[in-house]
Design a protein that fits this description.
The complex is a heterodimer of chains A (about 280) and B (about 260).
Chain A (H helix, E strand, L loop, with lengths): L3 H27 L3 H8 L2 H9 L9 H30 L7 H16 L2 H14 L10 H27 L2 H9 L4 H31 L11 H12 L3 H37 L1
Helix pairs in contact in A: 3-11, 4-5, 4-7, 4-10, 5-7, 6-7, 7-9, 8-9, 9-11, 10-11
Chain B lengths: L19 E12 L2 E12 L3 E5 L6 H8 L7 E6 L2 E2 L7 H7 E4 L11 H11 L5 H14 L15 H13 L5 E5 L7 H16 L4 E4 L3 H7 L2 E6 L2 E6 L1 H6 L4 H12 L4
Parallel strand pairs in B: 3-8, 3-9, 6-7, 7-8
Antiparallel strand pairs in B: 1-2, 1-4, 4-5, 9-10
The chains are: A mainly alpha (about 280), B alpha/beta (about 260).
């Protein structure tokens, strides 16, 4: 049952939302170029044509091309989770034996985070084929794109992992080691499970960003959603295809964003409950 | 890790370690410029219960952490059952298997059930099978009145229950020596006694223990020997009756007077 106060605030928020949306629509409709924009960017007929595609006319289905984005995203995500974990564990390791590996991974993280992703995609997409190496040089553009995504994102995600490892209290390490568990066993059973629980929200945030960045792989010529939209625009001089691509990307990212919010809220509730005890 | 040379000759009387479960000699530890331990000499014989008393910051906790090799020592030597456990060639993990430690803040693993907390180390370190580890944990948990809690997560337990689980977790490694670091200091007053009862039971069972504590009444009851620490040194030690009633050093007297004034003895 909603109380009076609650009912009042729901009514207020609904009204204000409606007013703001109406104002935005009115503004767009009243703009001098409104008709042209609607025709060139949001034309339902062209949007449908772009969505289903017509290879004979010189453009591909944006909807079908999105499937490539999804595959690239899923494969890259799995690889990133693994590579980044290895990098993070190496970077926080102690002991002189691993020093060379620590240096390598530190340099890697600095470089991969510092170079714009689009440059990495160009470097690998055009550099690897130029090498003429047996296995490496004859892959598809999408494979090079995924490699560049993994290289770039693993650097970021390894830092997220590292922050997570750092967030587990030192006393947990002491407790684990005091039982005779080795450094690796402590990490595997005591530290990492707690660290990963702490970093799920920031991790998902990076993956939302990864979903969109698969669109950059189009620069190598892969027909992913953004590239397909570009081909449509080049052929028909109508940009509605970009609106289609944008909507499709939103359909991918928004559920993940909501899921992340849900996890953050649940985590906060759990922390609060813990603090009360 | 300086001065570990005495190892090989361990001394003069290798067998002298025989009855001594733990022997600490000339132990020094500094954190930066802060010298916390300045030459500790202490011998604990098997089945002995030693209580370390002293003001906060006197070095009690640091001494325990050094014995468990959780802190790197600056100088001195430590022997466990006559074997040198300080020095570069020592396998810390192996040493820690034999020394249980219980912390003030419990430090249970929050993402594991009580049973998993207790079985993890026996399985991963001692190589027990899951069935063996679980069977052992049930016996121990049952013995300390925690049988019904084994499927619970630590945050569902009271402080006293958590600390008892922490003790059981250490016992599951079948240690030769238990170190207790102010294990009741973080507990609500009404929960203190259930933990002290467990420790008393261990003492009666013959467990060798080194206990840092502020519970003077408990120390008087349970200790075979009480050591008073101040400024990183053992100022005075002796049977509780003697140390509490006729302290010989002025610093011990002053400390005990403050405790009495605070109504804790």
């Amino acid at each position: 049952m909603l109380g009076d106060g609650n009912r009042r605030s729901v009514a207020l928020s609904t009204t204000s939302t409606v007013i703001v949306l109406a104002a935005l629509v009115a503004l767009l409709a009243a703009a001098p170029g409104s008709r042209v924009v609607r025709h060139t960017f949001f034309n339902p007929t062209d949007m449908w044509r772009a969505f289903v595609g017509d290879p004979k006319a010189g453009y591909y289905s944006v909807g079908e091309a999105l499937w490539l984005n999804i595959r690239m995203f899923v494969i890259a995500e799995i690889l990133i989770l693994i590579v980044a974990l290895v990098v993070a564990v190496i970077r926080q390791s102690t002991g002189p034996v691993l020093l060379p590996l620590r240096i390598v991974s530190t340099v890697y993280v600095d470089v991969a985070r510092g170079v714009p992703l689009i440059l990495l995609i160009f470097a690998i997409g055009f550099g690897a084929p130029a090498l003429s190496l047996a296995f490496i040089s004859y892959q598809s553009a999408a494979v090079y794109g995924v490699a560049a995504l993994v290289l770039s994102y693993s650097a970021y995600v390894s830092e997220v992992y590292r922050a997570g490892i750092g967030s587990v209290h030192r006393s947990q390490v002491a407790a684990a080691r005091s039982l005779g568990l080795s450094q690796w066993t402590s990490m595997r059973y005591v530290i990492l499970p707690q660290a990963i629980r702490n970093i799920i929200p920031p991790l998902l945030n990076d993956f939302i960003s990864l979903q969109k960045d698969t669109a950059l792989v189009g620069v190598l010529g892969s027909i992913e959603a953004n590239k397909a939209a570009e081909l449509f625009a080049d052929t028909t001089f109508n940009y509605s295809s970009y609106a289609v691509a944008a909507v499709l990307f939103l359909l991918l990212t928004i559920p993940l964003a909501r899921f992340t919010d849900h996890l953050i809220a649940r985590d906060r509730a759990r922390r609060l409950a813990g603090a009360v005890q | 890790m300086a001065r570990t040379g005495g190892g090989a000759s361990a001394g003069d009387t290798p067998g002298a370690g025989g009855a001594s479960a733990l022997r600490v000699e000339g132990l020094r530890k500094a954190f930066g410029a802060n010298e916390v331990l300045r030459g500790i000499d202490l011998t604990v014989t098997s089945h002995e219960v030693i209580c370390l008393i002293g003001a906060s910051g006197s070095g009690k906790s640091t001494l325990l952490r050094c014995v468990n090799l959780l802190e790197r020592i600056d100088a001195g030597t430590i022997y466990l059952d006559g074997q040198l456990i300080t020095g570069p060639a020592v396998n810390e993990n192996l040493v820690r298997q034999h020394i249980g430690i219980v912390f003030q803040s419990f430090n249970l693993f929050p993402h594991m059930t009580v049973e998993r907390n207790v079985t993890l180390a026996p399985m991963k370190v001692l190589g027990l099978s899951k069935a063996e580890a679980v069977a052992q944990s049930r016996v121990l948990l049952e013995r300390f009145g925690l049988g019904e809690k084994r499927a619970d997560y630590p945050d569902r337990l009271s402080g006293g229950q958590q600390q008892r689980v922490a003790i059981v977790r250490a016992l599951a490694m079948r240690p030769r020596l238990m170190l207790l670091d102010e294990v009741t200091s973080a507990l609500d007053p009404e929960l203190v006694s259930e933990v002290l009862d467990v420790i008393r039971e261990l003492a009666e069972g013959g467990m060798t223990m080194l206990i840092a504590t502020h519970e003077m009444g408990f120390a008087r009851d349970i200790a075979s020997r009480v050591c008073f620490l101040a400024d990183g040194q053992i100022i005075e030690q002796g049977p509780p009756a003697q140390l509490f009633s006729q302290p010989s050093d002025e610093r011990t007297r002053r400390f005990l007077r403050r405790i009495v004034d605070a109504g804790r003895l």
